[in-house]
Amino acid sequence: MFPDEGATLIVLVPQLGEHKVGGPTEPDTMFTVKVSTGGLAEASTFTCSGLTPRALTARAETCAEFPLGFDTVLLAENGTIVGLPRGATVSIVEM
After folding, report:
1. What are phi and psi of 49, to 5 degrees?
2. 64 φ/ψ angles, rounded to the nearest 5 degrees
3. Over the stretch 29-69, which tens digit does the pLDDT of each residue have?
4. How far is the C-alpha of 75 from the C-alpha of 14, rounded, in Å?
5. Other CB atoms within 10 A of residue 70 CB
6. Domain 3-94, second-level architecture
7. Residue 4: DSSP 8-state
8. In sequence order, what are the residues at sequence separation of 6 or more whose Cβ sits closer than 8 angstroms to the Cβ of residue 21?
9. Integer CA distances (angstroms), 54 to 4, 11, 50, in order
10. Buried-most residue among 1, 36, 41, 77 (CB within 10 A)?
């Protein structure tokens, strides 16, 4: 019930990047993730490798009843960071 006392999961991934419509894809390793929250006017998308669709599904199940769940920070090898608040809706839009 106290988000400031909640858990934060830091996940190291090989690659994070900007989603470019019509850009090159590597379906075996990269997929596009869509994130929407009440704090964003519109959904945001990014590309990611190193996570599985099952990992994102498990995160969604765990974070389904806000404020339960955990905040997630994705950290790529090149230093790119993406934060996924526990209240964010996260889905895969392209594989």
Report:
1. -125, 155
2. -65, -30
3. 678 889 998 777 888 889 888 888 888 889 989 888 877 88
4. 8
5. 15
6. 3-Layer(aba) Sandwich (3.40)
7. G
8. none
9. 27, 14, 12
10. 36
Which two tokens mark 93? 């839009």
Distances (CA, A) of 90 to 5, 24, 37, 78: 22, 22, 9, 23
What residues does each domain of the chain span?
3-94
What are the backbone angles phi and psi of residue 3, rounded to the nearest 5°? -55, -30
- In degrees and rounded to multiples of 5, residue 34 shows phi and psi of -110, 130
pTM: 0.79
Three-class DSSP category at 52: coil
What's the one-letter identity of residue 84?
L
